[in-house]
Specification:
The chain is mainly α and 81 residues long. Helix 3 crosses helix 4. It starts with a helix and ends with a helix.
Length: 81
């Protein structure tokens, strides 16, 4: 969706406590990542040029992702031996 189209959707909504279109974007990304949506999908939907931008902004919403990845790798290595 083009930014101007998204802006048109929200132009008549009252801003709640200063929440504007970027607040809604942040809300969407936060909920998507918190629900387990892959960061690559969220980055694409947000229009970020790379997942690095998404990761830097929202990594606090993915606690334990490194630990989870390490467990998966560890399990895979033990199963392979």
């Amino acid at each position: 969706m083009k930014p101007e189209n998204a802006s048109a959707l929200f132009k008549d909504l009252p801003a709640a406590d200063g929440v504007g279109i970027y607040g809604f974007r942040h809300y969407f990304a936060s909920n998507a990542l918190g629900s387990g949506t892959p960061i690559t999908d969220v980055a694409e939907w947000m229009g970020h040029k790379s997942i690095e931008e998404t990761y830097r902004t929202y990594r606090h919403l993915m606690p334990g992702s490194i630990t989870k990845a390490a467990r998966i790798l560890d399990t895979g290595l033990w199963d392979a031996t």
